[in-house]
Amino acid sequence: MMKKIIDLELTQEEKHLIKSKKVSQKVLANYAIDEVITILDASAERIKTLKALFEFQSIDSIGIKFVKDLMLLGYYNLVSLKDKSGPELLNAYEKHIGKWTDSCVEDQFWLVVHYANYPDSKKKWWDFTSERKAFRSQFGYPSDRPVNAWYENAKGAVFFKSKELQQSI
Predict the structure, then answer these.
(1) Contact criterion met (CB below 8 Å) for 53 and 76
(2) 126 φ/ψ angles, rounded to the nearest 5 degrees
(3) In terms of C-beta density within 10 A (0-12 exposed, 13-18 middle, 19 or more buried), how is residue 125 classed?
(4) d(Cα 1, Cα 136) in Å, to the nearest integer?
(5) Cβ contacts of residue 43 below 8 Å, gap of 6+?
(6) Rounded (10°) CA dihedral 33, 37, 38, 44
(7) What is the pLDDT of residue 91?
(8) What's the rounded Cα separation, in Å, for the pair 65 and 53?
(9) Domain ranges of the chain
C-alpha cells in the first residue's frame, strides 16, 4: 500500500540541488527512492535515512513522527522488525525516552511488526487496539516503566501551552 505523499525531510541544500536539476518537489514524489538518492547524490548515512523515511511511510497510517521514533531506536527497515513485537518495541521506546507514551504509539509498533511479516496487509494502526488492550490486560506493563507521561516535564508538570489541551488529558 502506497501513500500519496512521503515526507523525505529534504534539507534546504537538497531542495536547491533538485531545483538546479530542474526537478520539482511535487514531481520528486513520483520517483523511486533509488532515483531520489541518485538525484541528491546522497551520502551513505543520508541514504539509510531516506530509505527508512520512504519504506516506513509507505505503510498506510504511519507518519514521519513515528518513523523518527523507529529510527531513534535504530530501526531503518522493515526486515529488522520481523522478529520483534509491539510490546517489546514500546517498552524499549519508553525506556529510551524516559517517559510513558500514548497507547496509539504501541498500536503503531504492532502495525509495523505485522507489516514486516505481512507486507500486503491492509491493516492500519488502530486495527491493533483490541489486541494491544487484551495483551496489556493480561500482561500489564513492565515494573520499571517510566512514571511520567510524554506530555509532562521531569517534575510531572504538563508542558502544553493550551489550557484546553491540558484539561483534556
Answers:
(1) no
(2) -70, -10
(3) buried
(4) 29
(5) none
(6) -140
(7) 97
(8) 10
(9) 1-58, 63-169
In the chain, the amino acid numbered 100 is W
Query: Looking at residue 81, what DSSP letter applies?
Result: G
Find the DSSP H helices in the chain.
12-20, 25-28, 33-40, 44-57, 64-72, 86-97, 103-117, 129-139, 163-168
Looking only at Cα atoms, what is the longest distance across the chain? Answer: 57
Buried b (16+ CB within 10 A) or exposed e, 4-30: eebebebeeebeebbeeeebeeeebee
Residues of the chain below pLDDT 70? 1-4, 153-169
- Give the pLDDT score at 159: 54
Q: What is the pLDDT of residue 167?
A: 46
C-alpha grid cell, residue 118:
505481512
Nine-digit cell string for 156: 510531572
Cell of 85: 513485537
DSSP state, residue 97: H
